[in-house]
């Protein structure tokens, strides 16, 4: 199978905005080789997670803090919703694991699940019971370990719920704190993810061309505008935040018009939605394009109605 060109589609933080039928149509339109989900499906929204598990494309998922919203510790007596979500996802939940996709020569390594960002471990008891991880240092080493052994000719993607520290502390930085009125933000990245990346880079163990995450929403709190969603590191690692929230809009007048250009549908017939995805295109093992893409789904019609190119390399 040809693998020189690969298309990856990121579904950022879902927050209950998921419809199997409509999202499947949008994905059919986008034709991804791999779909990455950054988590926060809802507040332990098992129905959404079950539906995502049924998506008929290769995929990898990391659960976020909202996916362990009520479950603080591992329960042996009954299956809690964290357990049920993990059972649905199976090996496609990549926390501290590597998923190798030999057909497209891509490997995905998952970071720490349930992350809420910042310096303390969120859901410490769960992490300890399920993964044996008790502190940031252990967490970093688990991520590093999962990345070791990545096949040499594979393109490695780190998938985490929240991005690493070190990418800026302004409120509109890719992992910057935007919700506090006082001060100018602060770096809310995950220190363990940053540590794992630097350990892997220091020892030249594997190269990390792409780090994908969510959690820090594109739209900033208090009407402060929008967040930077991409950072290209000095060593060319691309850090990409996919958390476009909410990811679904009903088609308003503006969108109707752009759809009308190509469509004979009358405005009465247009009752569809626009759905956000982040697209990454790889060619010969390098990222050639990254774009925020909005796909309109109106009954059986799908159209790309907006595309914002975030990165392009010829
Ligand atoms: Zn989150």
Task: Write a structural description.
It comes from Pisum sativum (Garden pea). InterPro entries: Calcineurin-like_PHP (IPR004843), DevT-like (IPR027629), Metallo-depent_PP-like (IPR029052). Residues 7-218 form the Calcineurin-like phosphoesterase domain. This is Calcineurin-like phosphoesterase domain-containing protein. GO terms for molecular function: hydrolase activity. By secondary structure, the protein is of the alpha/beta class. The protein has one domain: Metallo-dependent phosphatases (Purple Acid Phosphatase, chain A, domain 2), CATH 3.60.21.10. A hairpin with a 2-residue loop joins strand 11 and strand 12 (286-298). The mean pLDDT is 92. The chain starts with a strand and ends with a strand. The strands form two sheets. Strands 1, 2, 3, 10, 11, 12 and 13 form a seven-stranded mixed sheet that branches. 22% of the residues lie in helices and 25% in strands. The chain contains seven helices and 13 strands. It is globular and about 50 Å long. The longest helix has 12 residues, at 136-147. Helix 2 packs parallel to helix 3 (81-89) and helix 5 (136-147) packs across helix 6 (191-202). It has helices at 20-30, 46-53, 81-89, 124-131, 136-147, 191-202, 253-260, and strands spanning 5-11, 34-37, 59-61, 98-101, 106-110, 155-159, 210-213, 230-232, 238-241, 248-250, 273-283, 286-298, 301-312. The structure holds zinc ion. Zinc ion is lined by residues 40, 64-66, 161, 215.
């Amino acid at each position: 199978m040809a693998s020189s060109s690969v298309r990856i589609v990121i579904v950022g933080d879902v927050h209950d905005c998921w419809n199997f039928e409509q999202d499947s149509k949008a994905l059919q339109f986008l034709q991804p080789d791999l779909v990455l989900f950054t988590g926060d499906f809802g507040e332990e929204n098992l129905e959404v997670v079950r539906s995502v598990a049924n998506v008929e494309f290769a995929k990898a998922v990391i659960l976020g803090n909202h996916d362990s919203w009520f479950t603080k510790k591992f329960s042996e007596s009954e299956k809690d919703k964290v357990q049920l979500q993990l059972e649905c996802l199976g090996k496609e939940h990549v926390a501290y694991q590597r998923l190798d996709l030999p057909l497209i020569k891509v490997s995905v390594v998952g970071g720490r699940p349930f992350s809420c960002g910042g310096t303390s471990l969120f859901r410490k008891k769960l992490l300890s019971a399920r993964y044996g991880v008790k502190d940031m240092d252990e967490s970093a080493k688990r991520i590093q370990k999962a990345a070791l052994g990545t096949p040499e000719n594979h393109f490695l993607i780190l998938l985490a719920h929240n991005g690493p520290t070190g990418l800026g502390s302004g409120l509109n930085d890719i992992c910057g704190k935007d919700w506090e009125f006082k001060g100018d933000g602060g770096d809310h990245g995950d220190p363990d993810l940053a540590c794992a990346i630097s350990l892997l880079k220091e020892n030249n163990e594997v190269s990390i061309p792409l780090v994908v995450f969510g959690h820090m929403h594109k739209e900033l709190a208090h009407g402060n505008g929008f967040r930077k969603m991409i950072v290209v590191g000095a060593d060319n690692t691309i850090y990409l935040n996919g958390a476009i929230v909410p990811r679904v809009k009903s088609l308003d007048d503006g969108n109707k018009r752009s759809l009308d250009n190509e469509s004979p549908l009358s405005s009465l017939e247009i009752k569809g939605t626009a759905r956000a995805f982040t697209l990454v295109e790889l060619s010969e093992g390098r990222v050639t394009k990254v774009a925020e893409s909005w796909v309109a789904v109106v009954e059986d019609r799908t159209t790309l109605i907006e595309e914002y190119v975030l990165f392009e390399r010829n």
